[in-house]
Amino acid sequence: MNLRLLVCGLVLVLGLAGCDSPEEQAQSHFESGMELLEKGDNARAYVEFRNALQLVPTHRETLVAYADALEAQGNRPQAFGLRRRLAEMSPDQAGPTLDLIDRAMELQDWETAENYVPRAVELDPENPRTKAAQLALQYRESHDDLSASREIVQEARALRDSALPDSIVLRQIMLDGMVRDGEFEDALTEINQLIAARPDDIQSYRLRLQLLNQTGRQDDLEAALREMIERFPEDDASEQLLIRYYMSRKDVAKAEEFLRSRVPAEGRAEEERQAVIQFLAATGGPEAAMKELDRLIAEVPDATRYRSLRAALVAQQGNPQQAIDDLQGLLETAKAKMAEEDLSDDERPQAKTVNEARVLLAQLLAQTGNSVAARREVETVLAEDPSQIGALQMKSAWLTAEDKMDEALALLRRALDTAPDDANTLTLMAQAHLRSGDRQLAGDMLSRAVSGSGHAIPNVLRYVQFLVADGKLLPAEDVLIDALRLTPDRLELLVPLGEIYLRQEDWPRTAQVEQTLRRIGTPPALEQADRLHLGMLGGQRRNDDALAFLQERAGASDASLGDKVAQLRAQVATGKTEEARTYLDDLMGEDPDNQTLQFLNAALKVQSGDVAGGIEDYRALVAANPQNERLRLELIRALSLDKRPEEAQEALDAALKDIPEGPDLLWMHAGNLEREGDAEGAIAIYEKLYSRDTGRSILANNLASLLSTAREDEESLDRAWQMSRRLRNAELPAFRDTYGWIAYRRGDYEEALPHLEAAAAALENEPLVTYHLGMTYAALGRTDDARATLTRSVEQAEQIGHAAAMDAKAKAEKALSGLETGQ
């Protein structure tokens, strides 16, 4: 007999409801939650919704209502997760998918949008919302094509006017187009309408700040910032922007007054007090911050947060071990207090604060080389609070360094769910996307980090560097100018702006930056001004004027050795070798024991053709400075240039004996081993170097290349693939060869082909690269191309002759034999 049926039968007879199905119970929780929402009791309504979803995770009505309610309260990230669940529950319905796409685009989550737009096109291609989503992606792809992007903006305007007047996605396209074309007044009108329609969308307020800057409405900035602070009290970036606004006007007192006004009269107010402490440290130095901390530690019932901040300050002052000891003692005390039952809430340490202290301890442990203990602390925090942002950031950084980008990105998305605009999280996401080879998403994250940090200088510089590397000088200029409007006369911003103008050969604006630097007048500013001036002279091919400028600077009474070396190098660069020789002899006559001049003397001899004389000078310098890696390398290079390979090898062996961990010496040694055919020896060295710095693309390339060419096991290939993902958009031929060959090894021949064709065209004397291309032609069934290419590989190898070339020749000959026999 079915005992459950019997029990339920008895319950029904007794008139009880204990055997309602999960669906019925979920519906009951949903209805209760809706009633509570109508009464304005959101917190209890959310509890009911969560209860419903625990019983039936796919309860559609609850998911929709919960997502709508969260969005109405401004919690868009959490609502976004519910929208994603709805879309996945209904893969054959366009509505939930389009809802998810709209939210993804509003949150600038382009990865999600790109994944789901094809589904919307398949399900409902004529839906105006589908067309809007397609336009948004097309506009995103068209940014390098001004004509195409303007056409898309017009299409977006027409679609909005005809079918989607309230579309945020279309409005964003139009706004971006207006800003791009300098239509700032129209954009301000549009953004004000957008804010009226979506008063809880912080991105709109941030764009308004940018437009106020660009239109020169500095007086309106303060009011706009205060409105943002009132509307979004949890957004730290708005407060930081207001502080920087005051500081740009040198109104330190008003900035401090504002921060202190944010501290409530009652309650813990730890975040607000921390902002005051950080401000005091920045404006009054560590002594002012320490004084404030000591006062708070003596006054507040629970000083856990302030003791933690004090430890951080101790570390910044150069005593990390003392800070570690302080934090460990703090955590022991906090643990004991949390276990006491007779403490009030004000006296009891909060779990959040304790976890923040533990993360700080982990950071200091990692900085002092104790990575094992640091990881243990991070895992402890995440076990207690899986959403703790600092711990998620640290663990994701470790995973990225280990080339586990997918795992790192998963953790970072969890961190963004808690704080969507956290600049550190966004920066780490950018780094992970770069390691994955997705520069576009990386750029999006860096751009958001600039906005989320209120144009903080480190975030601005990272984004500018990224844009400049992609040749996007005008956007980089705009980012720097926006930052300079908020913090004028900052050297860190003026210098890269001047460099951009140099690259554009915009001499008038380069001169303006130079003049600004001279007006600032500090020694670093004047040094950068001189550098820009020389850059302009060089860019205008005014070599004699540049040399005269350097001679004048070197001849000044306060000229440094660096000034004199700069003149010497300019003489060499302009072909005035004899003048350089005479000038250097005069300098050495004045200071014969100066080893910098002795080094330059050796280098000039080598460059002038007296290689043997340079070698002798280098030997003398090495004898006097056996731990100087640069001198060792120059000696080895000079010996190689003089065609003395045995002596060069002896010099390398001696250098490695004296400086066994020298990175450049190890790099040279690995290259030699690779050419000699000792792939495993080279791999061992590259592994050592890579473990020290996994961020260097050239190290990743060399190691991945050897793992994929010298080994056949799947584990090595998988590791090579993880390392090489960052290379897929690279322009360097060697990087393209590595990525292409690994794609070939993974069976993705179509992906491999364009990379290997480009690499082989650029590296005409690399038989292994040519062999890789030949093998790809063969895999694609292009037998004639494969035969011709593999034959060329054999010919190249015979001309070169070293062991690695002969290995490539053997592989190519074997492949040719296989083509003839059909194997």
Automatic annotation (TrEMBL):
Q: Which Pfam families match?
A: TPR_16, TPR_19, TPR_4
The alphabetized list of GO BP terms reads: RNA processing
**Is the keyword Repeat assigned to this protein?**
yes
Recall the GO molecular function terms of this protein's record.
Answer: identical protein binding
TPR repeat segments run 26-59
Q: Which UniProt keywords apply?
A: Repeat, TPR repeat
Q: What is this protein called?
A: Tetratricopeptide repeat protein
Per the UniProt record, the source organism is Primorskyibacter flagellatus
Q: What is the lineage of its organism?
A: Bacteria, Pseudomonadati, Pseudomonadota, Alphaproteobacteria, Rhodobacterales
